[in-house]
Amino acid sequence: MKFWVFLGIFLFADAISGYKILFIFPLNAQNHWQFSQRIIKTLLNRHHEVTCITSLPWPESMPINYTEVLVELPLNLSQILHQKKIGQAQSALSNILLFTKLGKIRAEHILNSPNVHHFLHRNDLSFDIVINEEFYVESLSMFAYQFNAPLITISSHGYFDFFDRQSGLLTPWSHVSHPLLGYSDNMSFFQRLQNTFVSFSDLLIRNWIHLPNQMKLARKHFSHLGELPTMDKLVKSVSVILINMNRFYLPPRPSMPGIVYIGGAHIEEQKPLPVNLEKFMDGAEDGVIFVNFGTFEMPTEQMDIFLDVLGHLKQRILWNYHVESIPNIPSNVMIHKLLPQNDILAHPRTILFINHGDMSHKYESIQYGVPMLIISLFGDEFGNAKLAERAGYAKQLHYNELNSDSLMSCIEEMTLNKSYSNEAKYMSSIFNDNLVSGMTEAIWWIEHVAKFQGAKHLKSHAINMSLFSYLLLDQFCVFILWSVVAAILMYFLIKFVIKVISERKRQKRLKLY
Hints:
The chain is of the alpha/beta class. It contains 18 helices and 13 strands. It folds into three domains: 2-265 and 437-464, Rossmann fold (3-Layer(aba) Sandwich); 275-431, Glycogen Phosphorylase B (Rossmann fold); 470-504. The chain has a seven-stranded parallel beta sheet. Strands 10-9-8-11-12-13 form a six-stranded parallel beta sheet, sandwiched between helices.
């Protein structure tokens, strides 16, 4: 009896010993939510209390240690993005300006929510740590200042240059490509020229347009806190940045200890497939092709192209799509919403994954060694597709070039040419050869920052240095000054010596006469 009483007390104490975490998820995108939700679930299982600001409600019964601050009306990006622009590769500068615009709209939409407005004016709350999904919504990081808590940011989109700057490192543009360009670390002269132009323009846009816009939002909605820290000071206070990237996937680049790779953290262990799916896949003697474009609503013309091409293939097709009632679906095609993507990709019959180049899709595909046909739709997906195609385990098909012939040609090439499958399996072996999983890494760093009330021991003094001092220009100026002074002294010394020697020669000549 005493044993069970002791065990109950121990478990109860363990259950309440976790940290109080505020998790901010500003995106209305199911695939990114799955990544963040997986981290939240792991934190909940470790008995932490999580309060989440989100527009996506918890899909099942809400855990007792999870509190939801729901943004009542999710932001509909279709009202902002024109359908005709989807799939069209915009210039890098256009995308940067678009991200800046979307970041302002997203942050304002969330802060104007009645539930969030009520939440940020409560005085009875405290948190041990604040985690913000990092995608151009820095004003939401002001919650960390409000609750006097350490700040962690998560990037499910990849590695951006400003992560380096806010950690005390200048990105070397000579061999580190801007993420929207997708170049390798061996750039040609003109690629380096373009990379420098885009990266410098990104820096100016961020410092002169984006951060001032976010600061205006912060002053408007957090004015009850009195004087606020500048946006530059706020972003430099970030303890750790968790990036959904794998160190073996990116070209080598310098980094800082507070920038942590957690690529594939959302990937779960394989589960048994539902009976109908397992039967469908096991019977596919020529393999299964999996299709998933997220929440993208495909226009009728492109849908007809896909159904026509897929219907002529000998493989069976599984398509994850939010609309199931589509007419004239071929007999070898099964369309369902919320298909278990991880378990489908893990099935040995899966031979190809057609998707839009989302980061999470890409890592699940690499995890199980499945080659990809990428049809990018928006933003950083084009750069992701370039990197994957260059690595040899993927092929890119531009959306505006999509027709029956091009789609059929790409699918036939990728299913018949074994080099794609072989390269995907090779990348899978590299991806899975880690000391710890991405999730273990993510949770350890979150708890580490909470435990030590920040991570000041990871912050370089370089974040406080001026560009003049960082680049040693002050040292260079002193060196130039010393060189000039030394040259002047040497000049006068030589002039003096020459004068003395000349005077002595003149005196000798006078004595001879």
